[in-house]
Design brief:
Radius of gyration: 29 Å
Number of helices: 22
Structural class: alpha/beta
Largest sheet: 8 strands, parallel
């Protein structure tokens, strides 16, 4: 009897995890490579699942694609590893063997282009299509387009059973906010015989998600829950040892429509044995009809209408000026910082932007100071770095900003901790700036990072960084285009120290549909100029500028005045091409950027008077 026929009248019991079992045994490295280097251990684990009652054994090929194998310098061994895995699974004596292909994209990390990911998956699929398996199990896919493309590819080349599983962001939804019902219907439309969910959640949350799902017209439903929510001890993931709980949950999962049940991370042969016993003792059969209870809909939070003009909505003939004023490192610096923010706002700064521990140096929290200057009439624009907060902290931080009425964000990856004043600190980097831009836009749609509804929409305008001094300006502009696709509303550039470079940048970004704030940071001394040129990533000074500053070494006042003069020259050039200027305050000397802000406003008045 084929697997397609067997699934019609019986509950199919899958197997459990391979990777986490091997990990708990202390094995490190590439588990898929063990198909070649330690085949006996892989076959032995398969045999344990068969003895536990698995109808279907998956091949040990979850991460056996070129992208993931490249981490171990094994990308040239895709065919060899995959085909060896099939032989090991078949040798275990299971009734059926499914060739497993795992997704490439993760939940929130910046992704490789879809074409690169699917090319790797198709290469793996080709290797497995050449083997005598009973079907294909596509599991742990976060990107529905990635999964749909692979499904289409396989369906065109085989009539064997295909099961396809998505991984949820939260109960009942993908991380994009798509409801699981819609996702399963999508998989059915793309040719899946069995659709379902796996990973991230244990049986309890998988069951809650199933309760929201209607049975499909053709495709069956499968579930492969994790053993539990993971625990971390000494940097290693562990799961509750709860096999009997899996057995207890099996009848409820079947009642809600699951006709194929296995286990994902943390599950063992004991978990599968418990599922098998529950199926046999209760004589469980596939459910063909069910009623989905209608969930009570919550009334969305009534939001006040926003009256704040966006930074990107500057009026004609008006220059938008953002001035950066770094939060101080010491509490004693707060009064001067507050005075600086007030001075800049009075001089005509559109917004005062506060870095988020720039160069990985600890400073007073920019959220606290941003809230304080907002109360004093300034418009705060906060940098949000990915370095210091995980995805939980980032969402919490952003929702807090929204509730405080702060709407302007600059999303940055952040300098690594090792370059700062706490080099032993951990850099988190759950995501990149590109990912963060996407997720902030998701909050603007009223969806949390996990895909759940927030009950209201945030209203952030999101900026992104731009290295205007890049050697290959064309490549940097291509990256800006990708950031626009991710949702960037405007860009703020690194400081530029050449009028010629400003003109080059103007030509390079002219086609972009969003504003670019050209960065200008006045110099204060020759030593300052040399430090910026040699030690700060993304900043390059011309030899002419460095020579001018070098000639005034030892005269602090003259050096500062020369720095202001040079900055005004750059501003005058910039205003011919840009209506958006970004001034960076050096060493909290806000009197300098106050003077430059006033200079911009005077230049505007001069232009207006000449046009009358």
């Amino acid at each position: 009897m084929s697997l397609k026929e067997a699934r019609k009248n019986q509950i199919i019991v899958g197997d459990g995890a391979v990777g986490t079992v091997l990990f708990q045994r202390g094995i490190q490295g590439c588990f898929e490579e063990m198909n070649l280097s330690d085949p006996e251990q892989i076959t032995s684990l398969h045999e344990q699942y068969v003895r536990a009652g698995s109808d279907v054994i998956q091949t040990n090929t979850y991460a056996a694609n070129a992208v993931k194998l490249a981490r171990y310098q094994l990308s040239d061994h895709v065919k060899e590893i995959n085909q060896a895995a099939v032989q090991l699974a078949k040798a275990a004596g299971a009734p059926y063997v499914m060739a497993t292909i795992g997704g490439v994209a993760t939940m929130h990390q910046e992704k490789l282009p879809l074409t690169e990911r699917t090319a790797a998956l198709m290469e793996q699929a080709d290797a497995l299509l050449d083997t005598d398996v009973d079907g294909f199990l596509l599991e742990t896919f976060y990107d529905l387009d990635e999964l749909g493309t692979l499904l289409d590819y396989l369906r065109e080349r085989t009539d064997k059973l295909i099961a396809a599983e998505v991984t949820l962001g939260d109960i009942g939804v993908l991380h994009t906010g798509m409801h699981v019902q819609e996702a399963l219907a999508y998989l059915e439309a793309h040719g899946a015989d069995v659709t379902g969910m796996n990973c991230r959640m244990g049986p309890y949350h998988i069951l809650q998600s199933l309760e929201e799902v209607q049975l499909l017209e053709q495709a069956d439903i499968c579930v492969y829950p994790n053993a539990s929510l993971p625990n971390v001890r000494d940097g290693r993931f562990s799961y509750q040892s709860n096999p009997s709980y899996f057995g207890d949950m099996t009848p409820a999962l079947v009642e809600e429509g699951a006709s194929w049940i296995g286990g994902c991370c943390g599950t063992t042969p004991d978990h599968i044995a418990a599922i098998r016993r529950a199926v046999d003792e209760h004589n469980l059969k596939p459910v063909r009809t069910k009623t989905v209870k209608t969930k009570e809909k919550h009334t969305p939070h009534q939001q006040k209408k926003e009256t704040i003009t966006k930074l990107t909505e500057t009026s004609i003939n008006e220059t938008s000026v953002i001035v950066e004023l770094d939060p101080p490192k010491a509490l004693s610096g707060v009064p001067a910082f507050m005075a600086g923010a007030k001075s800049l706002t009075t001089a005509g700064a559109t917004a005062v932007t506060l870095a988020d521990n720039s160069l990985a140096h600890s400073r007073i929290d920019n959220l606290a100071l941003g809230s304080k200057i907002k109360d004093e009439g300034a418009r705060p624009l906060l940098h949000v770095a990915c370095r210091d907060r995980n995805i939980i902290g980032l969402q919490s931080h952003l929702l807090g900003l929204h509730e405080l009425g702060i709407r302007d964000i600059l999303a940055i990856t952040g300098d690594p901790a090792k370059v700062g004043d706490f080099p032993g600190a951990t850099s988190v980097y759950d995501m990149s700036s590109m990912d963060l831009i996407r997720l902030i836009k998701q909050l603007n749609e009223g969806q949390s990072f996990s895909g759940k509804e927030l009950g209201a929409k945030t209203a952030f305008t999101v900026g992104a960084a731009f290295n205007a001094n890049a050697r290959r300006l064309d490549r940097e502009v291509q990256r800006l285009e990708k950031k626009i696709e991710a949702g960037a509303d405007y860009f703020m550039s690194q400081p530029v120290y050449s009028s010629a470079r400003i003109e080059e940048v103007a030509d390079a970004v002219r086609h972009l549909p969003v504003p670019v704030y050209i960065g200008i940071m006045p110099l204060v001394s020759s030593r300052n100029a040399e430090f910026l040129h040699h030690e700060v990533p993304g900043i390059t000074l011309t030899e002419e500028v460095r020579e001018q500053m070098r000639g005034l070494s030892g005269d602090k006042e003259a050096s500062e005045q020369e720095g202001i003069r040079l900055a005004k020259e750059l501003i005058d050039t910039a205003m011919k091409h840009f209506s958006t200027i970004y001034l960076i305050t050096p060493f909290l000397r806000h009197h300098i950027t106050t003077e430059l802000t006033s200079h911009i406003r005077l230049q505007e008045q001069s232009v207006r008077s000449r046009s009358l």
